[in-house]
User: Fold this.
Amino acid sequence: MSGKKSLLEIISENITDGELSDKFSLPKDDDIGDPDRLILADGAMDGIGIYHMVQPEITDEQMQIVSKAFQNIGDTPKVMDSMRSFFEKVFPIRGIDAIQRYIIDHSQTLDVQKVYMFAVDCLYSAEVDMVKLGLIIIEIFNEPDEQIKKIIRTLGLSDEFTIFSVFNMLGWENGNQEVFELAQKVHSWGRIHSVARLEPETQEIRDWLLREGIANDVVPDYSALDVYEKVGISKLLKENISDTQLNQIANVLCSMFDEGSVRGISALSDEEAKDMLGDFINQAEFHTATLEICGLMMTIAAKEQFSDFSDKCSEYLNSKKSKSLIEKELSNGRGINLAKYVGIPFKEKIYAHMKADFSSGFGNCGALLDDEAYREKVIDLFRTSLPLKTMIGEPTTAGGYFDKYADYNKLSYLLQFLKDYPLSSTDLVAAALRMPIVQCRIQALNAISEWCKVEECNVKGLSEEIYQAVEYLKQAEVDDKVKELLVKYGL
Assistant:
């Protein structure tokens, strides 16, 4: 065993009010070098494997590694060393069945007491894969005592281990309630995995699923179909429901329409989808309008599959209550697409919101830049709202993925639109070339390249300020992607 703290201890030390902070992350084996490197979130690799990768075949050769490992049971370091070799070829989440089947098939020859004690040792490991191995093995034994249960509950609070803890809990006498308790305390991949395996046994669980089942920090789409089916949304829409429930249903259905990550609305039969959406539209007539409900109406109206509902959706969106809502939300910088759909002027209100609350409103700049009456005013808001002088620095390889780079990300967001408006804000583009964050420099170079094409000139013909900034960058650049762009664009 290494001298590192066990992951169980690290998790335990970071629990506040029964759960981990959304900023918590397990220490990674390669937490060295560039601190700005983008690292996968806890549980992401397993989530990607489950939802986006085919279950791999486990070869006889790989199973020989498992066999060798358990032949050494009783010698923990040797078993762990062999299983590390196995996990180099097969991720733990993909090796669950093979490992468990091997132990069960060889239960007559293996010392099962030693196997169990080895698994308990693994729970105290400082290595992610070894902790997972412990959880995989303990799952096949009888329901553990309260001490082991407490460990499994604690490990489950980390999104990296949630699914393995859930698999264990499902075998306990009160397993579904345990999963429900855990689901409420995890907020990323752990919630997705918990929701997928949570049975809607009680009204409390169904109410929570409708309210928070898709509320995860990854993508709500992953859980939308699960929530739809477990809550029984199709049936619920035929009953008397509250304004809150209808809005929650709209949230779930909007995520089902996205289908960017997993199947949603397309998983329903055409008959069920049409019947359910018809009920939703009928319900909406008698409930308070919300952005979520209006957004879903606009989505339905745009789908050829549901063209029978287009007129009713359009009528709803153009109703007095919907327009009143949209007008109000524009003052908060929201509802732009809905305003466009029903023909409500929106630019003055979202500019005023951006001016009053730049941090939350800057993302609407793209909706204003195409209007010459607002373009320079919007660009000037970025000039006055960002600390541009202090943002300038030597180029680095930092991508800008973290909160500390919020100002750089705001500027980068603006730059992606400026390529369509030659010679607008040359000062901002030149400044971006002198910033440490890669994305700022990339977006600035993209804009310069497009401007050169439109103006039919080289970079020097754009402006002396931009030319000097490009010349500086050619000498100072340290990131390979940016170097490639300088060559590609002939700058």
Remarks:
- The mean pLDDT is 94.
- The longest strand covers residues 15-16.
- The chain has 30 helices and two strands.
- The CA atoms of residues 142 and 171 lie 8 Å apart.
